[in-house]
Structures are given as C-alpha cells and as structure tokens.
Design goal:
Layout: H1 5-9, H2 13-16, H3 20-23, H4 42-52, H5 61-73, H6 77-89, H7 96-108, H8 112-124, H9 131-143, H10 147-159, H11 166-178, H12 182-191, H13 207-219, H14 223-235, H15 242-254, H16 258-270, H17 277-289, H18 293-305, H19 312-324, H20 328-340, H21 347-359, H22 363-375, H23 382-394, H24 398-410, H25 417-429, H26 433-445, H27 452-464, H28 468-476, H29 487-499, H30 503-515, H31 522-533, H32 538-550, H33 557-568, H34 573-577
Helix pairs in contact: 4-5, 5-6, 5-7, 6-7, 7-8, 7-9, 8-9, 9-10, 9-11, 11-12, 11-13, 13-14, 13-15, 14-15, 15-16, 15-17, 17-18, 17-19, 18-19, 19-20, 19-21, 20-21, 21-22, 21-23, 22-23, 23-24, 23-25, 25-26, 25-27, 27-28, 27-29, 29-30, 29-31, 30-31, 31-32, 31-33
C-alpha cells in the first residue's frame, strides 16, 4: 500500500504548482506511463518527482529513477538522498539502478563509507554489482585521498572476475597521478592483463589514459619514463593530443630541458595541434626564467597572431620576466597594454610590477601603485606588503617599514612567517638588533609557530653584532623546538665562530653538519676557508679545496680569489699549488 498522505503534505508549494502535464505525462497512454524530456532542470525534476509519488496506481521504479538520475546529473546530491528517502517512505522498492545512483552520490560527496554501505544493500537485495558500482567506489576513495585502498579495491574486483572498463582504468590512472603516484599508475599500466594469468583482462589503453599518465610522470620529474611512454603511445597508433604534448613539454621545461621542449612544441604545431594559452604560458615562463625575455616576448606576439588571446597569467609571466632583467619600462608598458586590450588586472599584476619597482629602488613608483590598489578594487595581500617591506628595509627606511607593518592591520592582512622574517632580517641588517629581539620575544610569548628561516635571520643578526654566545645558546635549542638546521643555518654559525677567532669550533661544526646529513655548499666552504685565510693557514685551505673536489662542489669566483690571495702571500706557494685539486671544467 502506497502512503500518499505524508507524501502530499511534504510537497513544497513550488512542486505543487509544477507543470506536471507539460513535463512528463502523455495523455494518450495509461496514467502510470511517463515520458521525460531529454533535459530537465533540478526544480522541475523535483516537482515532477513529488507529483509522481501521488499517482495511482504507483508508477514503476524505473520512471522514478529517471527523475532521480536527472537530479544526480546536476550534482545536487543532497536532493538525490532526500528523494531516495521519500521513495522508501512511500513503500516504493528501490531497484539496482536506484541504489547505484545513491552509491555514486555518496562517493561524490566524499562519504565513501556510506557508499560501501549501499554496496552491502545491493548484495543483500540479491543484486550482482557490476563494474559501474565499483568505479564509483574507486572514484570516492581517491576523492578522500585513500589511494592504497583504491588500488586494493581495484585488485579485488579483478580477483572477483570483473573486467575493468576503460572508465575504471581512467579513474585509477587519473587518481594515482593526482596523488603523486604516477609510477604506481605506470606499473599497473605495464602489468595490465597479467593478474592471475587471465588472458581476458587484456587492456587496450585509450588516448586519455596515455595523456594522463604522461602528464603525471612528467609532473613528478620522471621525464625519461614520460618520453618512453609517449613513444609507446605513438607506436601503438595513437596520435598524441594537446594534453599529451603539454604534459611532456611542461615536464621538460621544469627539468631545464628547454631545447627538447622546443622541438616537441614545433612537432606539435606541425601536426596541426593548436597550442592553448596554458601551454604558451608554460613556455613563456621557462624562457623568462632563463632570462630569454626577447624570445618570450616573441612568443607572446606569435600567440596573438595565431588567434590565441592571452590571459592575465600571460601578461603577469612576461611582466615578471622583464622585472627580473630590470626592464621595468617594458614591464610598465605591458601593464598598460593589459588594460588597453580589455584584460582585467589582478593582484598578481600589481605585485609583479611593485616588486620590479622595489628591486629597481624606485619606491615612489611602487607606493603609487600600492595607493592605486588601495583606492581601487584590488586589495593588497600579504605578498604586496612583504614586497614593500623588503624594499623599504633595503633602502634603510626602518621607520617607514614599521609604519607600513602597522597598516597591515588596517587593511586586514594577516602577517605570515615571511613577513616576520623580513622584519627581523631588516632590523638586523639596519643595526636595530633590539627591535629584532623585541619582535622575536613577542612572537615567542604569543606561541607563534617559528620556522627555521626566522631563526636564521635572528642568528645572523646576533652573530653580525658580535653576540655569538647568545646565538650559540639559541642554535643549541633548535632541536628542542623540533627544527632542523639548514645549510644556511650552519654557515651563519660557522661565519660567527670564524669572525670570533674560534677556528677549531668552526671546523668542528663543519664536520658535525656533515655527520647530521646536511651537505655544505660552496658558500659554507668559502666561509670556513676565509676564516683560515685570516690566519694564513694555507694547508687547511688546501685541505678544504680537496674536500670540495671529493664532493664535486665547484669553486666560485670568491673561492678562486681567496685561494690566489692566500697562496700569493705564502713562501711555499709552489708546494701548495701542486696540492690544489683539479675541478671539472678546469684545465
């Protein structure tokens, strides 16, 4: 018996006024037979659903499923769950399709536990789940970052005798790649069809699977495997698409292999594949990073000629490239062009140009842009303030920097760890150690979660001011605070010890950092050698040079200048010259 009273009372007024006759009832057929438009919006579907619940005799569950499925496609999952509960309340018996819709909704809502509960209901009702049900569960597990569980379920369904669909494989590969486990995805790709020796599991990968996997491998820096898979895809007769080329080109650019990336880009264009704005941005970013702003600018013009409209990211990338080369006039022209061509600037656009002006020591121009942001629709963020603070401290404007820091509260911008690092470092470098220590202790009392960078700044300030004892005590406390010293931390302390004439302690700390697994860099070696240089200890300098060679650390100009100066003053110059090791690229 269908309970109609409670159903009628639950119908919203909008549903009661629903266009039932125009929506789904065909008068020429029995009343329980329904037809549905191919496209239906959520409100109409819900309204029709409530009216259907009042029909006598009850409509078949297949008709109800069409409406519930229509709502599910709009991703209004909560409505779907409510509709399912109403179906149960009026004693309509959900079938396999109803349960699958519900299962998919729970998984899409990142509630895979309830998805598995529905799967249990499917078994209890005597239905045999198919691969579609398992696909939803695998997708849900990935959405909840339960990667290992997803792979385990995949292997389990194969063991149960199910043939994974192309959608299953696509979901698995996409989920693994997004979780940073592209190698696992590649291994599954390579082993496809080998589980339990079953020949019926032979897998024919799709273009989408290949493209996703190539992109994932290259994103994780596995360029050789990405290129190998790219060739395999071509050998199997798949023509690479934009996604495959973009993934490979992006990976090559990130790996510093620009020339090879350029060859693949040319090949892609020759194949008639039109690059999109994202790919152009990737290429321009790489060129700008390598200082090739003229080539990046040429690519920008080519992009426009080919009919691909730049976006704000395109302008920002090229502007930043110009700023890195101190081409601030070109960056400003691009900033103006951006608005002239109808592109809306964003906070990043302003921050890039403000940073350019600060590095060019044009603080007036930087603050003019800052004022424009404040008065306009683009509100400054923490990066804006950090950039300006850095510029002010660099020019020694400590009071202005303090005043700007106070403005952050006015603009409701919360300082981050970088902000405090900039402040402490700025105070220290401008001989305001008391201000730095006061801020440091204030943060300490407030329970601020320090990172190693802030400690590096305060240690550098203390050592630079000759307060090595205080710095040493603070350095010893790092492990108690759960912080691991970086190579920069050790170098600061070694420099402080050398400056204080404590060469044995400096050398011991140098040896300790290596034992702790922190490899010294060329700056660390130069710092220690400079300390021994001040005591004309040529043997120790040569010993350090030999260690550099053993560790394949190339000397820089500072190293060479220091060694030449030391040996030129030593009467045993020829003796030590024969002991100096040869480095790569040396004759």
């Amino acid at each position: 018996m269908i309970r109609t009273t409670s159903a009628a009372s639950a119908i919203p007024r909008t549903a009661q006024r629903g266009k039932l006759s125009s929506l789904f009832i065909n008068p020429s057929k029995p009343k329980h037979t329904t037809e549905f438009p191919t496209e239906i919006n959520t409100n109409d579907a819900v309204a029709s659903f409530y009216q259907m619940l009042q029909m006598h005799p009850a409509p078949p569950i297949s008709s109800v499923n069409k409406l519930i499925g229509a709502v599910a496609k709009t991703k209004n999952y909560k409505d779907v769950i409510f509709m399912y509960r109403r179906v149960v309340e009026v004693d309509l018996l959900p079938d396999y399709i109803t349960l699958n819709i519900l299962l998919n909704c729970y998984c899409s809502m990142k509630n895979v536990v309830l998805g598995f509960s529905v799967m249990g209901g499917i078994f209890k009702r005597g239905y045999s789940p198919n691969v579609v049900s398992f696909n939803s569960l695998i997708k849900g597990l990935f959405m909840e970052d339960k990667v290992d569980d997803a792979v385990m379920l995949f292997n389990k369904i194969i063991g149960m005798g199910f043939q994974p669909s192309i959608w299953t494989w696509g979901t698995l590969i996409k989920g693994l790649c997004r979780s940073g486990k592209a190698e696992v995805a590649l291994r599954l790709h390579e082993e496809a069809g080998k589980w339990n020796g079953r020949s019926d599991l032979k897998f024919k990968p799709s273009l989408i699977c290949y493209s996703t996997l190539i992109h994932g491998l290259c994103q994780e820096g596995l360029l050789d495997k990405g290129k190998q898979l790219f060739l395999e895809m071509q050998d199997r007769g798949f023509r690479p698409d934009l996604v495959a080329y973009s993934g490979l080109i992006h990976g090559l650019c990130e790996g510093g292999e620009w020339e090879e990336a350029k060859l693949f880009f040319i090949e892609m264009v020759d194949q008639g594949i039109r690059p999109n704005v994202i790919l152009f941005n990737i290429l321009m970013h790489t060129l700008c990073k390598e200082g090739k702003t003229n080539e990046a600018s040429g690519l920008f013009n080519l992009m426009i000629q080919r009919g691909e409209e730049p976006n704000s990211c395109t302008y920002n990338v090229l502007m930043n490239g110009f700023c890195l080369q101190n081409r601030i006039v070109d960056a400003r022209e691009l900033f103006v062009l951006m608005a002239d061509r109808g592109h809306k600037r964003d906070v990043v656009s302003y921050n890039v140009l403000i940073n350019g002006y600060c590095k060019s020591q044009k603080l007036e121009e930087a603050f003019r842009l800052f004022k424009e942001m404040v008065l306009g629709e683009y509100k400054p963020n923490v990066i804006t303030f950090n950039t300006l603070l850095t510029g002010l401290f660099h020019l020694g404007n400590v009071e202005d920097a303090q005043a700007l820091f106070q403005q952050m509260k006015v603009h409701r911008v919360t300082p981050d760890s970088s902000t405090y690092s900039i402040l402490i470092d700025g105070f220290c470098k401008n001989n305001c150690l008391e201000n730095a220590m006061e801020l440091f202790h204030t943060l300490e009392r407030s329970g601020f979660d320090f990172d190693i960078e802030i400690y590096n700044c305060i240690l550098d300030g203390l050592c630079g001011s000759g307060k090595l004892d205080v710095a040493s005590v603070l350095f010893q406390k790092l492990s108690q605070k759960g912080l691991v010293p970086t190579v920069f931390t050790y170098t600061i302390m070694i420099h402080g010890l050398c400056k204080d004439g404590k060469m044995e302690e400096a050398n011991n700390l140098f040896l300790k950092m290596e034992k702790e697994g922190c490899a010294p860099n060329v700056v660390t070696f130069n710092t220690l050698m400079r300390g021994f240089h001040s005591y004309n200890d040529a043997p120790k300098v040569v010993e350090l040079l030999q260690k550099m060679a053993e560790r394949k650390i190339l000397p820089d100009e500072s190293t060479l200048s220091l060694v030449i100066d030391l040996l030129s003053k030593d009467t045993n110059c020829s003796k030590y010259m024969s002991l100096i090791p040869k480095f790569p690229n040396q004759g």
